[in-house]
Amino acid sequence: MLYDVTASLLIIVASMFTLATIIALYRAPDALTRANLMGNTTSVALPLILIASLINDIGQGDFSVGNLIRVVLTIAGLLVILAIGSFIMGRSLYETEE
């Protein structure tokens, strides 16, 4: 029961981050600002969804060390790839706006 509530709260928080990002993307004035706004969803909401999935597995008794390692590596990969991708996208957008 506690695991389900915790996982549900994490999903709700991730959904709120996603909704806030969508609203901000709609109101953003230019492409560079839109590219910077995607960082909230990708670096906060996606790891929260992965952690909620892991907590749900623990609550159902399906926890395994393999799943834990997979979630940790996925979150680490997300953070590294997103940082590099945001940098490259920002540079290319900045160069095209001049």
TrEMBL record:
Transmembrane segments: 6-25, 37-56, 68-89
Keywords for this protein: Membrane, Transmembrane, Transmembrane helix
InterPro entries reported for this sequence: PhaG_MnhG_YufB
BP GO annotations: inorganic cation transmembrane transport
A GO MF label: antiporter activity
Stated name of the protein: Na(+)/H(+) antiporter subunit G
Source organism per UniProt: Corynebacterium kutscheri
